[in-house]
Specification:
CATH architecture of the largest domain in chain A: Orthogonal Bundle
CATH architecture of the largest domain in chain B: 3-Layer(aba) Sandwich
Number of domains of chain A: 2
Structural class of chain B: alpha/beta
Number of strands of chain A: 0
Distance between the termini of chain A: 34 Å
CATH topology of the largest domain in chain A: MetI-like fold
Strand order of the largest sheet of chain B: 2-1-3-13-6
CATH topology of the largest domain in chain B: D-Maltodextrin-Binding Protein, domain 2
Number of helices of chain A: 16
Distance between the termini of chain B: 70 Å
Radius of gyration of chain A: 25 Å
Oligomer: heterodimer
Structural class of chain A: mainly alpha
Shape of chain A: globular
CATH superfamily of the largest domain in chain A: MetI-like
Strand content of chain A: under 5%
Helix content of chain B: 40-55%
């Protein structure tokens, strides 16, 4: 009886601590921690530390250059009444709503094409991935050339197809789609992820579907998509976060001091406005409040995505 | 000997001459001060990789503060780095930046007022142009020593003007109706695409110039009271915007302008892609070096009253509060901006240009004494370049600048956004400038709140 009682007892905190401490008798444990320390140090100092500091100054009127004092929740209240903060948040949401499906759709298309390539597949994977290596600032600069009215490379291509060329840089109706198109330049990263996921789909599932008379579209819809849904979900979350936080390319294209002539209310994204508040206007406290608000918004969106994903994402081997 | 080797030889000789001149100028400069400098002078925003004028002045100023060492990393002023330096209480001794920064940082107490520096080093402030001084003066104190001085005149492609039947008299900003007619005469298009801009008003950048030309002062002299939505400012924006809308509309206009090879030999003047536009004086130097045979002239920008006006911007030197080597910083600023230094480096450049067969198009500084001495056409120079130097030099006298403001960046953003909203057809000039006025008032109020 006593033995049975011990066997069914759930391990308490003391047990877990003893087990953790006993791990240090192993040499490998020390090595593992040795490798983790640099990352942990970087995280504490440059991420967690900065976040905590940001949270503190979000309740002050800190400007770096002048003495600061506590302002309570004033910065957070000011965000709600600042028309540019709200406008930039709306712009970021709209641009992300265009960008994420566009990027995922294109990456899936490219991955599906690459999955069929059997010769020189390594070469093609490299070619598709190469644009990911382009510095983001260079992408912003190239955007101005490639999307310049009827003269840019993209517009000339559209003209060749007899599609009217939009003024991506200056027409308020086309600025956000243009920015989304610019971000898709780095689609190769997700293409490679999707390709790996597609290659992992068991062939027998396709064979069984074919025997049942499923068309190529049904095989894709009912076999490929469910089987790669964890990867799709992962990229969906990551791209949403990226879309809401993207800065470099848009700043280079529209807000570089020499390009101020094309900045507009439509191109003003939330993180750009946050940067202006912090480093152009020296409103560090307000900018920190904006950063924490964005963090909260992203957390809520991610939690919602995870909740919804339970209906759509299939994890192989998962017990339901 | 090939032309290439001749040019290399010319520059080598010019280099030797420069070394001798710089040494002499430094000896001249250092003989005037009795203070012994020590330690290191840390400079932000002015490195050693600039052009010949920057390098030669650097050498002169370096000798003037010797035996103090000079630490001047390459790269322009970096606001983020500067803020980090302030936060860590490790400020540079000297910053070289755009004059528009001065008011904001002065208002927040991050800069040293230069009264004692000016007094102790006997810096003659009367040599600096009033417009430049105004943009570095906040609350009655000078916080920066002005250096370069941008002069904006109309650059005219005379080939385009002549072949379009446009005379110099028609390109008169004092007469908006005739100017618009001239713009449309020079403007060309193919369907909806612009193939030549007749007259580019340079919006949004030059809105302050247009506003002033129409009689508006968009910011009070103390930098605390914006007046962006005055009837004159609204009229100015309405007119300047109408010039663009009449020449294909903003989208087509800007898309075409973005195709220009601005710094190359196939620039918009060389290819006759523009009739006229207001521009800073440094662009004449670009034209003289990249396409010296272009048909170009300069015309002063005039206000509606017919008087020439110039919207001036430029750079300045300032000493952050907490600088450890303020004495050397003060001497450095004085040396970099005094007339003898400018004359020395200008003479070196003139000699180098003459030997290389390049045309002298002037060097325009915030020091009026220096400009009077150096901005004279060189002998044997083609008339067009000589005439341009004279026009720019004359325009300098009619300069205004936006006063130092505690919220310069927000003020500039407010009117830039307003102009862009008008250009993109999102608001009327009245709506846009009313909004800009509200934003500017709120920004300055917040910046001055204790």
């Amino acid at each position: 009886m006593a033995t049975a009682a011990v066997a069914t007892r759930r391990p308490g905190p003391g047990d877990r601590a003893r087990r953790w401490a006993s791990g240090f008798r192993e040499r490998d444990t020390w090595w593992a921690y040795a490798f983790l320390v640099p990352w942990a140090f970087g995280f504490v100092v440059f991420t967690a530390g900065a976040m905590v500091w940001g949270a503190i100054i979000s309740f002050t009127n800190y400007s770096v250059v002048a003495p600061s004092h506590s302002v309570g929740l004033a910065n957070y209240r000011q965000i709600a009444s600042d028309p540019y903060a709200l406008l930039s948040l709306k712009n970021s949401f709209e641009m992300t709503a265009i960008y994420v499906p566009f990027e995922m759709g294109l990456a899936l298309l490219f991955a599906s094409m690459l999955a069929r390539v059997t010769r020189f597949d390594g070469f093609f994977r490299t070619v598709y991935y190469l644009p990911v290596m382009t510095p983001t600032v260079a992408i912003g600069g190239m955007y101005l050339l490639m999307f310049n009215g009827p003269y840019g490379l993209v517009d000339q291509f559209l003209g060749y197809l007899h599609i009217p060329e939009p003024y991506w840089l200056t027409d308020p109706n086309w600025i956000k789609p243009g920015i989304a198109a610019m971000l898709v330049w780095q689609v190769g990263g997700n293409t490679v992820l999707y390709l790996a996921a597609i290659k992992n789909v068991p062939q027998q599932l396709y064979e069984a579907a074919s025997i049942d008379g499923a068309s190529a579209w049904r095989r894709f819809k009912d076999v490929t998509l469910p089987m790669i849904s964890p990867t799709l979900f992962f990229t969906f979350v990551i791209l949403t976060v990226y879309g809401l936080q993207v800065f470099d390319q848009i700043y280079t294209a529209f807000y570089n001091p020499s390009n101020a002539k094309i900045s507009s209310d439509t191109s003003l994204m939330y993180v750009i406005y946050l940067f202006q508040q912090a480093f152009d206007y020296l409103h560090m406290g307000f900018a920190s409040a904006m950063a924490w608000l964005l963090f909260g918004i992203i957390m809520v969106i991610t939690a919602f995505q995870i909740l919804v994903s339970k209906r759509f994402v299939y994890y192989e081997g998962e017990q339901r | 000997m090939s032309r290439r080797w001749k040019a290399i030889g010319a520059f080598a000789i010019a280099g030797v001459v420069a070394a001798i001149a710089v040494t002499a100028a430094a000896a001249h400069s250092s003989s005037k001060h009795s203070t012994t400098f020590s330690g290191t002078l840390n400079i932000m925003g002015f490195g050693t990789n600039g052009d010949d004028v920057a390098k030669n002045r650097f050498a002169i100023a370096q000798k003037a503060v010797a035996p103090a060492k000079v630490n001047a990393p390459n790269g322009g002023f970096n606001e983020q780095q500067f803020l980090t330096d302030i936060a860590s209480k490790q400020v540079p001794d000297l910053v070289y930046w755009d004059r528009s920064y001065v008011g904001t940082y002065a208002a927040k107490g991050a800069l040293m007022p230069l009264d004692s520096c000016i007094k102790s080093d006997k810096i003659d402030t009367s040599q600096y142009r009033q417009a430049a001084l105004q943009s570095v003066t906040y609350n009655g104190h000078i916080y920066g020593i002005p250096e370069f001085f941008d002069v904006r005149t109309l650059i005219v492609d005379t080939h385009v003007a002549d072949t379009s039947g446009v005379t110099g008299k028609m390109l008169n900003t004092a007469n908006p109706t005739v100017l618009k007619q001239a713009a449309l005469k020079m403007y060309q298009h193919s369907g909806s695409q612009v193939t030549r801009i007749g007259f580019d008003p340079k919006l949004p950048e030059f809105f302050p110039l247009w506003a002033k030309a129409f009689g508006a002062n968009i910011l009070s002299k103390d930098g605390l009271h914006p007046d962006l939505n005055s009837p004159q400012a609204i009229a100015a924006l309405t007119y300047a915007n109408s010039l663009i809308q009449a020449q294909g509309g903003y989208n087509a206009f800007l898309a075409f302008r973005n195709t220009w090879d601005f710094f190359g030999s196939d620039n918009q003047v060389a290819k006759n892609q523009v009739g006229a536009w207001p521009m800073e004086e440094w662009y004449y130097n670009v034209l003289a070096s990249s396409s010296p045979n272009v048909n170009v002239t300069a015309i002063p920008f005039r206000s509606k009253t017919g008087d020439p006006i110039n919207y001036s911007t430029g750079s300045a030197w300032s000493i952050p509060k907490g600088a450890k080597n303020a004495a050397a910083a003060c001497q450095w600023m004085k040396t970099m901006t005094n007339a003898s230094t400018w004359e020395t480096v200008a003479n070196i450049r003139k000699a180098a240009y003459a030997k290389a067969g390049q045309y002298w198009t002037g060097l325009f500084t915030a020091n009026s004494k220096a400009d009077a001495a150096i901005n004279k056409p060189t002998s044997g120079e083609p008339k067009k370049w000589a005439s341009i130097i004279n026009t720019v030099e004359a325009a300098e006298k009619y300069s205004f600048a936006l006063p130092a403001s505690p919220a310069s960046a927000q003020f500039n953003t407010a009117w830039t956004n307003a102009v862009n909203r008008v250009l993109q057809g999102q608001q009327s000039p009245t709506q846009a400038l009313n909004q800009a006025q509200k934003e500017a008032v709120a920004a300055i109020k917040q910046a001055t709140k204790k």
